[in-house]
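Predict the 3D structure for this chain.
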Amino acid sequence: MATGLLTARWTRAKSGARAAACSLLLWGGAAHASFLEGEALDSMADAVSWAVLIVAPIVGIVVFWLLHIIPEKIAEKKHHPQAKAIQALCLLSLVFGGLLWPVAMLWALTRPVLHKAAYGYDRIRHGEEPEHHFPPEPQQQEALLAPSDELQRLRVQIDSFAAAGAAPPTPEQLQDLRARLAAIEAATPPTLSN
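Done. Predicted structure below.
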């Protein structure tokens, strides 16, 4: 019994709201589309149309271009070795309407693991020389020396220890010499070490 009473009240409230909305629509006064009138309205319309026809496309093109060079800037900031290829992909993305942009962005944000495995480095300094790479780490640079060069350096160091009046080598110096000799023996092929 209570639900029937609530349903009847709800139906009457809905029909009353509809009647009020219809009366407001029929009673409405004069509508004004703008706060300007006459000549001022025409000059404002001309200014807005020129802005839409000239300024909006220029701003749109600049914003589109600025968004498309973001991957290139990220690649240069991270010293990505394939930054030139990412730049080319960004330019192609401009031509293809932005379809290649996500690929360029992902490429710029990823670390070139296979490039490091193939070439030994994964970063390049941009803007200096075309193929100028970061110098190897100091321990890698010592490993790059030829075994004969390293042996010559060790002989000079041992001779300096044997020089008249020289202080005897410290245990740390001897340990360093042994480690360097072991590295040379490991790097030298077995046929040359005999």
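Residues 138-193 form one domain.
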